[in-house]
Amino acid sequence: KQPWSNGKVGMIGVSYNAQVEWNAAAGAHPALATIIPMMPGTDHLFYVPFNHGILFLGLLNWAHIMEDRTPPSSTPDYGVQELLTLPLRDLDEATVGRDLKIWNRWVEADRPGDWSDGNFLKDTAGIDIPVLHISGWWDGESVATKLNYEAMKRHGKENQWLIYGPWPHA
């Protein structure tokens, strides 16, 4: 409703923010004109935070940052021995030195149904906006970008573009 706006908006984001774009697109708000998701996940049990059902231990530092939404004052210093901690629910305390709510949620959500609300691939049939899909050859979620693009094309959606480049995640 700004005087300089025509009422149409676009979204651009990387990783988690790209997943937010897809969820917004699935809501089909008339103001959303396009999205540019870069390196989003598609299925949380198959890509991030799990990889085909195996929890990514490398996400501990990210979970640590996301807990307070600010970078910690120092990077946790831990080695292989700490990564062998069982049960997995205790791995956060052994490595970053604190109990992380997001880590606990991930450990508990180990079945496909636990993630169904966050998986938007099933919603692509109802998304009718142009999308510029971007990923990197060395991105851990690069397959998800391809799946999103293919789903949109399979549903006959026009104005879908796909870019892959020589870069890692984000």
Please, could you describe this protein's structure?
The protein is of the alpha/beta class. It has six helices and six strands; from the N terminus they run βαβββααααβαβ. The chain has helices spanning 16-26, 60-68, 80-83, 91-95, 101-108, 142-154; strands at residues 9-14, 32-38, 50-51, 54-55, 131-138, 160-168. The strands form two sheets. It has a four-stranded parallel beta sheet with strand order 1-2-5-6, with helices on one face. The relative contact order is 0.18.
Give me the number of helical elements: 6
Strand content: 15-25%
> Can you summarize the main beta sheet?
4 strands, parallel
Helix/strand-derived class?
Answer: alpha/beta
Radius of gyration of CA atoms, rounded to a whole number? 18 Å
The 3D shape can be described as elongated
Number of strands: 6
Q: From N to C, what is the helix and strand string? A: EHEEEHHHHEHE
The chain-level mean pLDDT equals: 90
What is the helix content? 25-40%
Distance between the termini: 32 Å
Low-confidence stretches: none
Q: What strand line-up does the widest sheet have?
A: 1-2-5-6
Short synopsis of the structure:
With 170 residues, this protein is of the alpha/beta class. The chain has six helices and six strands, in the order E-H-E-E-E-H-H-H-H-E-H-E.
